[in-house]
Amino acid sequence: MRVLGISGSPRQGGNTEFLVQTALKELQSEGFETEFVSLAGRQILPCTACGDCSHVDRPMCTLGDPDFEGMIERFREADGILIGSPVYFGSATPETMALLDRVGMVSLRNGRFLRRKVGAAIAVARRAGQNFTFAQLNYFFLINEMIIPGSTYWNVAFGREKGEAAQDVEGLQTIKNLAHNMAYVLQKLNA
Q1: How confident is the model at residue 71 (pLDDT cuts 50, 70, 90)?
Q2: In the chain, N or C terminus with fewer CB closer than 10 Å?
Q3: Residue 29: CATH number of its domain
Q4: Which domain holds residue 31?
Q5: How far apart are CA 188 and CA 19, in angstroms?
């Protein structure tokens, strides 16, 4: 089984990337194949609701931005999808939402290929906003009929400067527990 982990932070090597990578390492320890994608440095155009994705012979988006290339296939091939975002002004980053809006639109117009995949969200912030961002990411999973595992607390952590989230002991343990619960759900669904 395969889990796709995405860091929606525009900062490479930051707290979001660290937390997503932490979860992926836990999943690897349980025998899962993982793939990590960072949106740092990528320019993902927002969905324009052009409708072209429903007029093609295979699921795709026709906007043509090179940094989006291969994203649809990654989501389609994954059994589980882990999305992390830092909090920017109380919500997920524009890069994260542009990616999710486009993948979600293609899925909705092409047989709902995200249905019954397992999805999990991680949000990290300096001080506040994690709960709204966490909910915002979960809305993507819910509208796509995905299955969301829980953890011992909301999947959030504190940190602003690179490496600070590693010092949030409770947040880090919550992310590890999330990964193990995600593994459990994936194993049960594929038994």
Answers
A1: very high
A2: C
A3: 3.40.50.360
A4: 2-189
A5: 24
Tally of domains within the chain: 1
What is the predicted pLDDT for the residue at 54? 85
The answer on pLDDT for 160 being more than 80 is yes
Query: What is the reported pTM?
Result: 0.96
Q: How far apart are CA 95 and CA 151, in angstroms?
A: 26
Q: Which amino acid is at 10?
A: P
In the structure, what pLDDT confidence band is assigned to residue 113 with cuts at 50, 70 and 90?
very high
- Helices 94-108 and 130-143 pack at an angle, to 10 degrees, of 10
- Show the tokens assigned to 60: 């795709």
Residue 167 CA to its chain's centroid (Å):
22
Question: SS in 3 state form for 135-187?
Answer: HHHHHHHHHCCCECCCCCCCCEEECCCCCHHHHCHHHHHHHHHHHHHHHHHHH
9 Rama sector, left if φ>0, alpha if ψ -120 to 50, beta otherwise: beta
Cα 160 from Cα 87, distance rounded (Å): 10
Q: How far, in Å, CA of 78 to CA of 66, rounded?
A: 21
DSSP states of 70-114: THHHHHHH-SEEEEEEE-BTTB--HHHHHHHHHHHHHHHTTT-TT
Instruction: At 47, give phi and psi (nearest 5°).
Output: -65, 135
